[in-house]
Amino acid sequence: MMETPRIVVGLLLILIVAGACTRSRDLDLLLGDCGDGVVDGFEACDDNNRNNFDGCSSVCRLEVGFVCQIGPDGISVCVPECGDGERIQPEACDDNNTLSGDGCSANCVVETGWTCGVASPSRCDGQCGDAQLVGGEECDDGNAVGGDGCSTTCRLELGFQCAVEPLPSTCIAECGDGRRVTGEACDDGNDTEDDGCSEDCIIEEGWTCPGRVGEQSSCFECGNGRVEKGVEVCDDRNQVSGDGCSATCTPEPGWTCDNNQPSFCTALCGDSRVVDSERCDDGNQLDNDGCSETCQVEPGWLCDRPLNSPSRCLRQWVKRSVGVSPILSGSSSVQAGTEILFFGGGKEGEQVVANGVVYDLETSTWSSMSTTNAPGARTKHTAVWTGEEMIVFGGYGSGVTKTPLSDGACYNPTTDTWTALEVPETVGARAEHTAVWTGEEMIVFGGVGNSDPLAPRLLQDGYRYRPDAPPDDQWVPVNSPSNYSPRRGHVAVWTGDHMIVHGGATLDLDPNRSQRNLHETFRFEPEDDKWMLLEDPLLQERHGHGVVWTGEEMIFFGGYTLEDDGIVEVAISGGSRFDPGTGEWTDLPPGGEAPTARVRPGMVFADGVLMVIGGQELFDPVVGSQLRLSEDRWQRMVDEGAPQVSKVAHAFWTGTLLFVVSEAEYGLYRLSPD
User: Fold this and answer.
1) Which residues contact 627 (CB under 8 A, 6 or more apart)?
2) Which of 31, 70, 421, 569 could pair with 560 as two cysteines, CB 3.0-4.6 Å apart?
3) Looking at the predicted structure, is the pLDDT value of residue 319 above 80?
4) 17 three-state secondary structure
5) How far apart are CA 132 and CA 310, in angstroms?
C-alpha cells in the first residue's frame, strides 16, 4: 500500500527527465485539476474552488469536521459533520453524538429549554428559570432566584418541597424539618402544637421563637415569669414594653433587671436615658449639677428629657442687674421683636421720670433712648406697639399735684428718634386709662381727667388715633357708652376684631362713700362704633388687676377690692377666664399653689400656660405661679435665684423664656415642662 506514491513520484521524474516542460494531458488525468468542479485523479473532493475551511481544501482534500458528497452536477457539496464533536458553523452545537433530547439535536441545533457552550464538543445544560424541566434540573419555578425553594441553578433547596408537575415548579417550605426558611415564622423540627411553633410553622400567641434563617427555631414563652437560659435575659411575668423587660424578654435601654423569678427591673440612673420614675439623667450620679444622684431634678433647675442622650440641666432663673436706669412703678413697656421698650414711671407728684430704655433680648444689653423730642416725665400712662413704633400717650405729669396729660409721642427704635403727637384739645387729658392697638389704630378709653384728688373726674369716653390718616382726621371720638359707668384702673384687650373692657373703679353716687369697684364687662366694635354689655356671672368687683389675651380667651387676676365705705383698698387674689367665642366664664382654680393676693401683676401666656408674676401687696415671697390650662392646676415657680418683683412686674414671653423686670433687677425664667 505504501509503494503507490513512490511509483507516482517515479513516473513524474521520468516525465520531467524526458523533457516535458509543461504538464501533459496524461498528467492532468493522473493528478486531477483541483477547483474545476470535477472529482478526478487523486482528488477526494472538488467544490469548484480552491478555498480552505469550507470542507474541501485548496488541494481538494477533505477537511476535518466535514463530509462531502458529489452533487448532480458533479461538484462536491461539503457540510459540517454533525456528531463528530467539532462545532463548525453553521452548527449551533455539536456534542459528539447524533442523539436528541440531550440539548444538542441530531442535526446540531440547540433544543428548547437548553443552553450549549461554544467549546467543542458542545456542553449543554438546562436553561434554569425558563419553566422547562430538562437535563439535570431538579426543579424550575420560572425564575433564577434563590431562597424560594428552587435555587439559581434549579436545584432543590434545603427546607423546601417542590412539585415538578405542572410546570413551572411550585415550592413550599417544608414545615417541621428543623430549618427555618422564607415563608416560615419558625421551624422547631416538629409538627407539635402548643410548643411555641405550630404545625404550620407559625409562632403561637404568647411565645417567642428567635433564630436565623436556615437554622432550627428555639421557642420560649415570654411573660411566664421564668427566665429561660440561653433565650431569655429577663422575664417580668408580662409582655409589656416600657417597664424594663421588653415584650421579647430582653432588658430595655436605660434599665437593669435582676435574675429573680420573675425579674425585677429598675431604672439605671446615670446611663443618659430617662425612664420610669427618673425626671432626668445627665450621665452621672452626682448632686448639685441639676440632676441628682437618684436622677431627680434639683430645686432651682430645669432639665430636659431627650430620648437617647444625656439630660441638659440649666438654672430656671437667671438674675441680673438693670444697668441703665431703674424701671419705676407706673412705667410703660412694649415688646418690639427682640427688644423690650420702657418709658417713664414713678410716684405721681414725686419721682416721675422721662427716661426711656431698651433691652435687647439677643445680646442681653441695655441702652438709653434718645431724649431729643421725647415726651415729658409721666407715670400711669399707656404705650402700644404698632409694629414699627411705640406710641406713648397721657398719664400723670411731674409736680406736686396729680395732673393728667394730653400729649404723647411716637418712638422708632430703628432710628432712635421721637416724633411728637399732634393731639387736638378736644381729646383732653387722661391718666389711668387703657389703650389697645388694633393693627391700624390705637383706641384709648376711660381714665382720670382732672387733678382734683377730692373730686376726681372719671371719664367714660374714648378716642381712636389713626397714625396714617391726615392730621385733621387722626383723632376720632369713640361713641361713648353713656349707660356704662366712667372708670379708672380697668383692663382692656384686643381680640382681633373688637375691644373687651372689664372692671375698674368709679365714683360712688352715695356721698358717704368715695368710690366703688365694678365687675361689668363690655365690648366695643370699631366697625360699627357700638358698645355691648356682656352677660357674666356675679364676678368679684375689682380694679388694678392684671390681664392677658391668650388668642382665644381674656384672663384677669388679682387687683383691689374696696373696704370701709370705699376708702380702703385691699389686694385680692383669684381671677376668671372669658371666651368671647362661646360667651363662657370660668373661674381660675383657688387654693393650692395659686398666686397670693396682688395688684397689677405681670401676666404672660405661652404654650398653654398662664404665668402670674410679682405685683404690689405681695405677701408671699414666692415670685409667682403658673397655671396649665389643660390641667386647671397651679404650680409655684421656683424661688431660688428669682429677682424681687414686688412692686413692678413687666413680663414678656421671648419664645423660649419668661422675661421679668423689677425696680432694681431683672430675670429670665425657663418654664417648667410639667
Assistant:
1) 588, 589, 594, 609, 610, 611, 612, 633, 634, 635
2) 569
3) no
4) helix
5) 62
Q: In sequence order, what are the beta bridge partners of 319?
A: 667
CA-closest candidate to residue 499, choices 470, 471, 530 = 530
Check: CB of residue 620 under 8 Å from CB of residue 643: no
List, in order, residues 6 or more apart from 609 with CB less than 8 Å away: 626, 627, 628, 629, 671
What per-residue confidence (pLDDT) applies to 577? 96
d(CA 635, CA 294): 23
Cell of 529: 362704633
- Does residue 16 have a pLDDT over 80? no
Q: How far apart are CA 493 and CA 578, in angstroms?
A: 11
What does the alpha-carbon distance between residue 187 and residue 203 come to, in Å, rounded to a whole number?
A: 9
Q: How many CA atoms lie within 13 A of 379 on its CB side?
A: 19
* Chain centroid to CA 63: 80
Q: Which helix (H) or strand (E) holds 669?
A: strand 665-669
Lowest mean pLDDT among 226-230, 245-249, 602-606: 226-230
- 270: closest CA among 237, 311, 319, 317? 311
Q: What residues are paired with 267 via a beta bridge?
A: 255
Q: Compute the average pLDDT of residues 596-607.
A: 92
Cα 351 to Cα 399: distance, rounded to the nearest angstrom: 9
Q: Which residues contact 655 (CB under 8 A, 6 or more apart)?
A: none
Which residue's C-alpha cell is 435687647? Answer: 360
DSSP state of 10: H
Output the pLDDT for position 228: 80
Q: H or E segment at 562? A: strand 560-563
Answer yes or no: are the C-beta atoms of 391 and 408 closer than 8 Å: yes
- What residue has cell string 418690639? 336
Going by their DSSP bridges, the two strands 633-636 and 114-116 should be labelled as: unpaired
Q: What are phi and psi of 544, to 5 degrees?
A: 70, 25
182 Cβ neighbours under 8 A, 6+ residues apart: 147, 148, 173, 213
Q: What is the mean pLDDT of residues 278-287?
A: 93
Q: How far apart are CA 515 and CA 542, in angstroms?
A: 12
Q: Give the helix/strand (H/E) hosting 5.
A: helix 3-17
User: Rounded to an integer, what distance in angstroms lies between the CA atom of residue 543 and that of residue 431?
Assistant: 14
Which residue, among 248, 242, 198, has the nearest Cα to 228 in the 3D structure?
Answer: 248
Alpha helices, DSSP H, located in 18-80: 25-31
For the segment 318-326, the average pLDDT, to the nearest whole number, is 66
pLDDT at 8: 41
DSSP-derived 3-state class of residue 460:
strand
3 state DSSP class of 298: coil
d(CA 318, CA 443) in angstroms, rounded, equals 36
CB atoms within 10 A of CB 397: 26
Statement: residue 94 has pLDDT above 50:
yes
Are the beta carbons of 345 and 354 closer than 8 angstroms? Answer: no
Residue 404, classed as helix, strand or coil, is: strand
pLDDT digit string, tens, across residues 152-207: 888 888 888 888 788 888 888 888 888 888 888 898 889 888 888 998 898 887 78
Please give the radius of gyration of the chain, using alpha carbons only, rounded to the nearest integer.
52
Amino acid letter for position 449: G
- Which of the pair, 18 or 150, is modelled with greater confidence? 150
* Cell numbers describing residue 556: 384677669
Q: Are 187 and 181 in contact (CB under 8 A)?
A: yes
